[in-house]
Amino acid sequence: MMMLASFLLFQTMASADENAKQQEAVATMDEVVVTATKTKELRKDVPNSIILIDDLDIKESPATSVGDLLGCESGLDWRTRGNYGGAAEGIHIRGMGSDGTQILVNGITVNSPSLGSADTGKIPTNNIERIEIVKGSGSVLYGSGAMGGIVNIITKSPKRDQTDLKLSAGYGSENTYQTSAEHGMFFLGDLGYYITASTSGTDGFRDNADHEQNDMSLKFELDKGEKLNISLYADYIDRQSGSPGPETPPGTTLFSVRGIPVYNSESASLLNEQNETDKHLVLKIKSKPLAWLGLNFQTDYTDMKSDFYLRYYDGWTPGNLPGSSSETINQIFGVEGNAEITPFKNATLLAGIQYKKYDWKNTSLTLDGFGNGTSQLKGENDLYTTGIFGEAQYRPNKYIKGIIGLRHEDHSIFGSKVLPRYGLIINPVETTTLKINIGKHFKAPTPNDLFWPKEDWGWGWGAEGNANLKPETGMHSDISIEQTLLDKKIFLSLTYFKWDIEDKIEWALDGTIYRPDNLSEYEADGWELGTKIGPFNNMTLALDYTYTDAKEKKAGGVERKARYTSNIFFKAALTYWFDFGMDLTTIVRYTGKRPAVYALATDKTPETVLSGYWMVDLKANQKIGENWTLSCQLNNLFNKGYDTYSENFRDQFGASTLSYYSGAGRSVFLSLDYQF
After folding, report:
1. Which of 36, 349, 573, 664 lies 20 to 30 angstroms, CA to CA, from 641?
2. In the chain, what are the domains?
């Protein structure tokens, strides 16, 4: 036994030394970014504020999802409707809505066309190699929905002369489980593959908060260097979740109809549920046939299907549980080609064209008091967009670089838009970078906004889309200074940002019909301060502070603080590597108070404000020998209660009470990984 313990101690110490060397190499490398300009650039040559996350960061982070991981970064706000497994997770950059952040996986947009936003909770973490976050308007290169920025998730690829194999299994609080497997290699000369699969689930913190997801991905890659690289990526995600709604008010007891539980002391709904299936396929071809010419081609296909089943108590007809069942299908075909031209030294011209076609179908079935279908509504439509874009970069000397871009977007519904972008980079010394970035942005109305079929809810009430909507437009500007010290062991950044949105689309009551319209304007400005220190003495430290002053302007001139947007975000992350093969990461976050509800559209003072809160998360990874890693993750260490959103709850007597979506409580998760 003592011999075994000595052997394991020796192996873990060797692994710790390897980890330290790896971290040292990563920390001192000049970082390369692709997403910001669609060309390879050093971070200091990009006018945007950039965040880079690699697979080691993901391994060490106690984040429970991709959204949670991104929410630890400066200027990014991770929002979710509380403590149930299938709660949608949105990323808000600098106070903008989640529909102003374009989320990509290997260059393909995973935002829901129906909603405009991406649910980052669906994206598996086990196949991620790198994440590039570009803050500031990205509409010139990426089109609609990139108003606040772009998050590009790059999945793992096979490695030369290396076979990757990893198996993982874990279990934790609330019967939460996860198993995953991944394997990659080059198997036929320059042809390789990387495949991943995982299954996960949880009972959740409340009744009807259960969740189950199965997913897999496959990437084939033909790599002949700069002359030719072809990759084919496909993934499949299937998930089923209960939808409990907000927590019920104190004193609420179990209510049943004909023996069927409807709500109880924990959940506003014990019947509602949702099922979602996502499929993505993307083919990318890159070639550099000449020293001054690079060619890129991409074609992709997305199929998203979502089913929502809702039941509620009908107080007018006791004993009835009417409701609805709706199915929405989005199919998107996209193709893009661009050329990177270097006409002379230190100058680059990117020119490209992008086409997307959206097919949208919605089927809504009205259910009677016994859950039987009584009437059906169907909506079906399609639209397309064509974007022609160009961006020129020129660095006449080592002290200055300029960027100018332009996009002409043609939309089948709302017509044409012209979008400019300007950037300036000043490098007074090698370790200091001043960045100025200005761009116009836009977001097209979603198919739900445009085409939702007219619904009759009874008593003259209903909802329908609005084909006369205008796109949301505005400007985004920021100025940043970045500084490295002590041989790049310390990185400092300070950014001031400002943006505005005109013709903000909101669903509102027009008489007795809910329909979307261009009702509001939004604007914000603020500061981001970031510090990354290390590695020093087996330790790294990151500190980030964001101040955001976001306001909404309602029709009639009322200006007030934007709902659910905090003025203050703070994050501190500390990682320490022990000599016996363990790394320990602690993340502390603070979110300030947020306005939740305004009683009237003309009110300037919120009726309800959500309190600020602190969160502490921990994760420890212990290497055991060359191949095994034991991990322990503890989230919400102090079991801090907090609310994320609010919603009205109506009981069986017809009384309406403002209720809340609470955040997840303390949880523990243990996992064991084998990696070859």
Report:
1. 573
2. 2-675 (2.40.170.20)
